[in-house]
Design brief:
By secondary structure, this protein is an all-alpha fold. The chain has helices at about 5, 15-30, 35-95, 105-120, 120-125, 130, 140-155, 165-180, 185-215, 225-245. It folds into two domains: about 5-55, no CATH class; about 70-245, no CATH class. The chain is about 80% helix and about 0% strand. The radius of gyration is 27 Å and the shape is elongated. It starts with a helix and ends with a helix.
């Protein structure tokens, strides 16, 4: 038995159903002995049946996309949770190592950054309504293409041997995202891909920060500038996530 929503599917809302019904009507009138009234009796039910079948297919596709989006949000929350644990370890290690009064400023930078990371899983979870919105609204590939061009330029300018591989991974990810957008990614999927990309960027930046703490503190080589340089990519990615979660910006 057809569900109520399928029963009331309107063929006029489906251009393909209307076009095929019109074609069937022309064929029946011109190539069969049926007159126009009988041809209409055949063409209208055919249009309705096609509209119902296509409506069912769209609904199945929408439910499948909904499940994928839900799974993507759960994966992002879980990934942010892993990064929060990693950030807590970095924060604790910095507290143990930054014992010189001259280290107070870099210690404050580390603690502030790690505090933002610890709050990230809850923040993503709170923004589920935004992350779930935009189903069926297709993303233009032009946006991702422009972002890819900017990141490729940043990769060419990158001089840090540690950060260069992270930027390369980001460029590779954006290239994959652009390919997906050209295949018809909708806003929800694009938003989750953008979030995932930034989380992976945070992962690379956090590992770089941890190496800086391990290698240079306590040490006479430690400088505020070195710590600021290590934290800058993390702050940038966190700022981008904040904008994404506030306004859906990709």
């Amino acid at each position: 038995m057809l569900r109520r929503s399928a029963v009331w599917a309107n063929p006029l809302d489906d251009p393909l159903a209307v076009a095929l019904a019109g074609l069937l009507l022309v064929v029946l009138v011109r190539l069969t002995p049926l007159g126009l009234p009988l041809a209409l009796v055949a063409a209208v039910p055919a249009a309705w049946i096609l509209a119902v079948l296509r409506d069912r297919r769209r609904r199945r596709g929408a439910r499948l996309n909904d499940r994928r989006v839900s799974a993507g949000i759960e994966a992002a929350v879980a990934r942010a949770g892993q990064l929060a644990i990693q950030a807590d370890l970095v924060s604790r290690e910095a507290m143990a190592r930054f014992v010189d009064p001259g280290h107070l400023e870099p210690l404050g930078m580390v603690q502030l950054c790690c505090e933002r990371l610890r709050g990230l899983p809850e923040r993503i979870d709170q923004r589920r309504p935004l992350l779930e919105s935009g189903g069926g609204v297709l993303l233009s590939a032009d946006d991702l293409s422009a972002r890819l061009a900017r990141e490729e330029e940043a990769l060419r300018r990158e001089r840090s041997a540690t950060l260069r591989p992270e930027r390369q991974r980001l460029v590779d990810q954006l290239r994959r995202n652009l390919d997906a957008a050209r295949l018809g990614m909708d806003e929800r999927e694009a938003r989750l891909v953008a979030l995932s990309t930034r989380l992976e960027r945070i992962d690379g930046g956090l590992r770089h920060l941890q190496r800086q703490v391990d290698q240079h503190w306590p040490s006479s080589e430690a400088t505020d500038a070195a710590m600021a340089e290590a934290i800058a990519p993390l702050d940038e990615a966190l700022d981008q996530i904040d904008r994404l979660l506030e306004a859906g910006e990709r």
